[in-house]
Write a structure and sequence with these properties.
The structure is a single chain. By secondary structure, the chain is α+β, with helices and mostly antiparallel strands. The protein has a single domain (11-314), classed as Sulfite Oxidase, Chain A, domain 2 (Alpha-Beta Complex), CATH 3.90.420. The chain has eight helices and 13 strands. The longest helix has 23 residues, at 17-39. The radius of gyration is 20 Å and the shape is globular. Bound molecules: ligand MTE and molybdenum atom. The site of molybdenum atom has 6 residues, from loops.
Length: 323
């Protein structure tokens, strides 16, 4: 049985997702506070504040600001919302499942297989993948096909800079990506909700576009597992499902690759999947979106607001078929 992206819940029926999340965080913190109190100690008694943020990791060193022309000045989504309201079906299909269960993913050691139409294929340890690339902060909008959105300050580097190192041949017209497939670490893979592993792909020209990045962090810190540690794709002008998480394989090839959502439900999810408010999903409108943290919906922008940068990639194509 195929589990699809859930239909967005009508505005009037929801408590805003972030309010829901904060409420749950409040309960968690209350539990932690209670445990601390039971342990006693005058010093720890001060830690019962329900607003206490969850433990955060160390800052990634040496992160520069990315090109200002590629950043949005919109306010980033609250860290808690971006790390507790996720789609990562390898850990379950509820929005809170990835945060709850992704702790079983082992991100060290990690290596990435780069193969296909390249002069220098290899199985490359993550350290080696990252070594030559300065890390940049890129503050991007993320628009999920389910009609919610966030603003996330990613830390990463251009995908194209990595691909060039492997010397693509003239036959490299597409790039295919795969997520880890290991049901012991990713218990959601024990259910056939998707044809595992999760796979995505880009045309070569899309992959070489400076907006397309590989992220290793967010909010200045290493990626939490639920956001796709240790390495995930971010393609901000496309629906979020293109931005594949926890990548173990990158294959350059002549043919358009298999991609999980498009191949399993082609009438609902396109290969290109460029954000397009004019093309409704068969089960809901794409005209507006709920920015997590806001109450009212806002209009969705063509190419998620990145048209100035990327529209030329699709010159002459019928944008309605690009959903
Ligand atoms: N491997 C994998 N990658 C994935 C998904 C997934 O289920 N598995 N979900 C996608 C979807 S639908 C979205 S909206 C984004 C969500 O990214 P975030 O949780 O970091 O906001 O991840 C994408 N990448
Ligand atoms: Mo999504």
């Amino acid at each position: 049985m195929l589990i699809r992206h859930p239909e967005p819940i009508p505005e009037r029926e929801v408590t805003d997702a972030s309010i829901f999340l904060r409420r749950r965080q409040f309960l968690q913190n209350a539990a932690v506070g209670a445990a601390v109190l039971t342990a006693g100690g005058p010093f720890l008694a001060g830690c019962t504040d329900a607003q206490e943020p969850p433990a955060r990791g160390p800052k990634l060193p040496g992160v520069k600001a990315g090109p200002p022309a590629l950043a949005t000045d919109e306010t980033p989504t609250a860290y808690h919302d971006a790390t507790a309201y996720n789609n990562f079906y390898e850990f379950g299909t509820d929005k809170g499942d990835p945060a709850r269960y992704a702790g079983s993913l082992r991100t060290e050691p990690w290596s990435v297989t780069v193969e296909g139409e390249v002069a220098k294929p290899g199985v490359v340890p993550l350290e080696e993948i990252l070594r030559p690339h300065p890390l940049e902060e890129r503050i991007y909008r993320l628009r999920c096909v389910e009609a919610w959105s966030m603003v996330i300050p990613w830390v990463g580097f251009p995908l194209g800079d990595l691909l060039k190192r492997f010397e693509p041949t003239s036959n490299a017209r597409y790039v295919a990506f795969e997520t880890l497939h290991d049901p012991e670490q990713m218990p959601g893979q024990k259910r056939r909700v998707l044809d595992w592993p999760y796979r995505e792909g880009l045309r070569m020209d899309e992959a070489m576009h400076p907006l397309a990045i590989l992220a290793v962090g967010m909010y200045g810190e290493a990626l939490p597992n639920q956001n796709g540690a240790p390495l995930r794709l971010v393609v901000p002008w496309k629906y979020g499902f293109k931005s594949i998480k926890s990548i173990v394989k990158i294959r350059l090839q002549r043919e358009q690759p298999y991609t999980s959502w498009n191949d399993q439900a082609p009438r609902e999810y396109g290969f290109h999947a460029n954000v397009n408010p004019e093309v409704d999903h068969p089960r809901w409108s794409q005209k507006r979106e709920r920015r997590i943290g806001d109450y009212r919906k806002r209009p969705t922008l063509p190419f998620n607001g990145y048209g100035e940068q990327v529209a030329s990639l699709y010159a002459g194509m019928d944008l309605r078929v690009l959903f």
